[in-house]
Amino acid sequence: MSMKIRNRHRLKSRDIRKYQNDLKVIFNDIFFDEKSSIETGDLDGTNIIFVDGEPCFMSYDNKIVFTLYGLNKYKPKKNFVVVDMGAVKFVTNGADVMAPGIIDADRDISDGNQVWICDENHHKPLAIGIALVNGEDMISQSQGKVINIIHYVGDEIWNYGAKSL
Predict the structure, then answer these.
(1) What is the pLDDT of residues 23-72, one digit of tens each?
(2) What is 6-72's CATH number?
(3) Burial group, residue 33, by CB count within 10 angstroms (0-12, 13-18, 19+)
């Protein structure tokens, strides 16, 4: 079954500025300018944000969040979480991240922030999630769930991005 973007349309300048401001607050960077072609569309209930035709962001809980495609393109330096190799197969299957699997994390992460998860060897993005605790606690806790996964390698959004390349 092929996935189709429905209701795709170009964003107005004020909407683009809002997304730019949101990204600046989270990552201290903007990643795209108003000259970029910014469109939005619906992929099975998920609002995808296209930058120059590429699915770089999505909307989650009324906030702009990176897709894995966007992470690979823009390579943000903030809000990262590094997991050990034993956690990789679980994360890439969409499992939430547990504290024992975390090796390192950005200490500036606050609970409720979007985070991106990468492996310890290659530091390649594996998933996007929402932090349940702050960065310090992610590193220091020895048990419990610390990140809810919202997008991961192999899900519908990933597969759509791979087909659009």
Answers:
(1) 888 888 889 887 889 999 999 889 999 999 899 999 999 889 999 999 99
(2) 3.10.450.120
(3) exposed
Select from 102, 81, 91 the least CA-distant residue to 149.
91
Which amino acid is it at 147? I
> How many whole angstroms separate alpha carbon 8 and alpha carbon 43?
10
Which part of the chain is CATH 2.30.130.10?
Answer: 80-152
Residue 139: pLDDT over 90: yes
Q: What is the pLDDT of residues 1-29, one digit of tens each?
A: 456 889 999 999 888 888 899 888 888 88
Instruction: Give the CATH number of domain 80-152.
Output: 2.30.130.10
Residue range(s) occupied by CATH 3.10.450.120 in the chain:
6-72
Rounded average pLDDT over 67-87: 95
